[in-house]
Design goal:
The protein is built from four helices and 13 strands. The chain is α+β, with helices and mostly antiparallel strands and 230 residues long. The chain has a single domain, classed as outer membrane lipoprotein receptor (LolB), chain A. Strands 7-8-9-10-11-1-2-3-4-5-6-13-12 form a 13-stranded antiparallel beta sheet. It is globular and about 50 Å long. The chain starts with a helix and ends with a strand.
Length: 230
Amino acid sequence: MKSVIKLIVLFLIYSCQNSSEQGVSDSERIYGFKSAYIEYTFENSSQGYETEGRGYVWIDDFGKRKAEKIIEVTAVTGSGLDTVYHINKLILTANDSTTEVDLTTGEGYLSLNRTSPVEIVVGNQDQFESLRIDKDYIESSGGDWIGSDSYLGLSCDVFEISSTKQWIYKGYVLQMQSTDQNTTLIKRITKFREDTVLATAVFNVPSYLSIRAGVSSDGNANDTSWEEEF
């Protein structure tokens, strides 16, 4: 779990640093490109299960709007009853909300986040701006700064930390290879179209969903988010 948290922190720091270096003053911008259409494949295996899948990503407004469709199949074995799970879901992110929909059942939920992930993970803005992803930072965190490499014809920064090797382009992970004990994760971008025109409809919640009930935050126990069921 600590390794996962560290990777999330590094990813958030790298993303915002990259945008800043390209002269983007808006602190809400996540990536160093305005829009993109992306396709990827992934494999995840551990003792007793194997997952394979593919995904499609639409990014606009420098990452402030994002739609991602994920299709995956997981086979669970060794428990005496072999099982196969199919997942087909859509995740929509816009400003301070995230909507996740199961495209098979039509069920979904909306999460409204009052605190940005950056503030939750690394504290105030001054602290955030003082952290930089570079060779010294990666190595001081116990990682290995590999340098530059080309992936899909794009120049990436490459480093390895917490048993995970990443190829980063303008704040976005184009390739990831992770091996930790008995677990292996491989994710590869297979198509990356940068600064492309995207249809507004891909960021909309499917029209067949309707809000049944909303549960608002009391501001105390769950201060960062609440949910509304569709």
